[in-house]
Amino acid sequence: MTAALLFLLRYRRQILAVVIVLLLLIAQCSARENDQNGCATSAGAAAVGGLVYPVDPNTAISSGYGYREGGEFHRGVDFAVPVGTPVRALSDGTVTAAQDQGVGGFGGWVVLAHTIDGTPMSTVYGHINPGGVHVKLGQQVRAGDVIAASGNAGESSGPHLHFELHDSPDRIQQYNPVDPTSLLERIRSGQTTTTGGAEQQVTARASTSEIVDRNAAAIIAAGLEDGVPEKAIVIALAVGLVESELRNLASEKVPESTAYPNDGVDPGDHASVGVLQQQVDMGYGTVAELMQPKHQAREFFRRLLATNWQSKSLTEAAADVQRPRAELRGKYAAREVEARELFARLVRRAAAGEGCSPVSPTSPGQGTGQGAEIVAAARRLVGTPYVWGGGDEKGATNGGVDCSGLTLFAVHAATGQHLPHFTGDRSQPGQLQMGTPVTDLSHAAPGDLVFFGSDGDAVHVGVYSGTKDGTPLMIHAPTSGQTVTEAPVSVGGNLIAIRRFTTSHTT
Q1: pLDDT tens digit string along 144-192?
Q2: Domain 51-189 has CATH 2.70.70.10
């Protein structure tokens, strides 16, 4: 009998004990790795189409996406799970943030970048306790991998998982939260594709920036068409940013609203729908009308302009129309800068007709191309005081504009043409002898300049803006003590000439 065999026989019990211990250790490590790195989706997880529910699909949602009872807008979904619950990756992706403490109100968090239905997106998993993060920055994960254990860290009201979905490849670089409710329900119910009607189609969803621009352009276009001053349009944009992040939202509380084009379905706050969250039972219009951003804008302008809004701050004027709770009245001012930037960036696009619904070609402010842009530029100065000699190609000077200062600004803003600061007479041609002559007012188009006077001498000029109820209108700077306004062409006196500074129309 060999020495090796004798050794095995003598120490067989000890060797067997070591082997058993090693097998137990291997099994324990394998189970731990499977729990932390998620080699496969657990039996309790819901999965569909490469997507996995972040927690047990039977878990109650303690706070949904949207406005909470106290007025705060909650940009995620809270799952009521106890501390230590495994948190799973929604989809295959890359870890772009992994920190178990010190992340503001989150305490600890994990952020993942994914491609979902062909769209780059990111997800957030927050309120993770120290030691509860199981992944590292840059790590590749699969759908269903356990990436963390839920906690109660940061500004948390109790143990839960805070989950966010962002329409951007990296939540840290581009903060674009979207409502994840329909996507989560899709996973929970086992749907492999989204449906129309009540749910927004994830696969056909426009990007958040496209949605914001589209709805902002519609609000601006409605204001320009109706002769609304720039300040009032900016107020409406700020309201849209606060109320809906400029998304045209349907509501679960108003089932009919889901049958119309929308940018998502909100859990519902009373009967509020649409981009400005107007209520269907408060005289704003039918559900079908309220799901049109331009209709909501016009309803807002109608109520705003009926107040002494010009003497108030933006947030006071907005709150007088929206009538929020007292603690919410200051929120509109926080979005004023953003609203002004949207107006400046999109006003040309809106004036050119994008986001505009068909209207009569003689409606105020309507027209095409440069003509509409001339009207839009003139409207930006509505409310500006009359100052003799005021105005240049950049706008008001010395605190105001006069009639020819207004027109030279508007034409230059839209076409780049340089007009003299003079209406024109027989000795000095001025604006009167520039551009293309238009035969009479019946052939005028928005953006044309209308001149008033006698015997070839122009003493006043305005920007023709179309007709309303058959009355030709113009935007002009009347005289000392007044402000730039829109008024019937007839108030200018004796019409002696019409000149066109665009090539958009024929005479």
Answers
A1: 999 999 999 988 888 999 999 988 887 777 677 888 888 888 887 774 4
A2: yes
Say if CB 403 and CB 464 are below 8 A apart.
no
List of long-range contacts for 315-318, beta carbons under 8 Å, 24+ apart: 317/235, 318/235, 318/238, 318/239, 318/242
CATH 3.90.850.10 fits 384-500, yes or no: no
Task: Select from 169, 159, 25, 137 the least CA-distant residue to 84.
Answer: 159
What does the DSSP 8-state code read for residue 390? -
Question: Under DSSP, is residue 239 helix (H, G, I), strand (E, B) or coil?
Answer: helix
Characterise 118 by phi-psi region: left (phi > 0), alpha (psi -120 to 50), beta (else): left
Alpha helical stretches, state H, 38-174: none
pTM greater than 0.90 (yes/no)? no
DSSP H helices in 369-483: 369-379, 403-415
The per-residue pLDDT for range 52-91, each reduced to its tens digit, is 999 998 888 888 887 665 556 678 899 999 999 999 999 9
Which two three-digit tokens encode residue 116? 């979902």
Report whether 391 contacts 406 (CB < 8 A): yes
Give the position of tokens 């000795």.
427
- The contacts found for 110-114 with CB under 8 angstroms, 24 or more apart, are 110/135, 110/147, 110/148, 111/170, 111/171, 111/172, 112/141, 112/147, 113/169, 113/170, 114/90
Query: What is the distance, to the nearest Å, from the Cα of residue 204 to the centroid of all Cα atoms in its chain?
Result: 18
* Opening angle at CA 469, ends 468 and 470, nearest 5: 85
Tell me: the pLDDT tens digits for 275-324? 999 988 888 889 989 999 999 999 999 899 888 888 889 989 999 898 88
> What is the Cα Rg of the chain in Å?
32
Task: State the amino acid at position 470 in one-letter form.
Answer: G
Residue 435, H or E segment:
none
Cα–Cα distance measured from residue 309 to residue 234, given in angstroms and rounded to the nearest whole number: 13
Phi, psi angle pair for 194, to nearest 5°: -85, 160
Distance CA 276, CA 321 (A): 11
| Dihedral sign (CA 188, 192, 196, 201) | positive
Beta bridge partners of 452: 460, 495
Coil, helix or strand at residue 106: helix
DSSP letters for 59-77: --EEE-SEE-TTS-EE-SE
Give the contacts of 35 (CB within 8 A, at least 6 positions apart).
86, 146
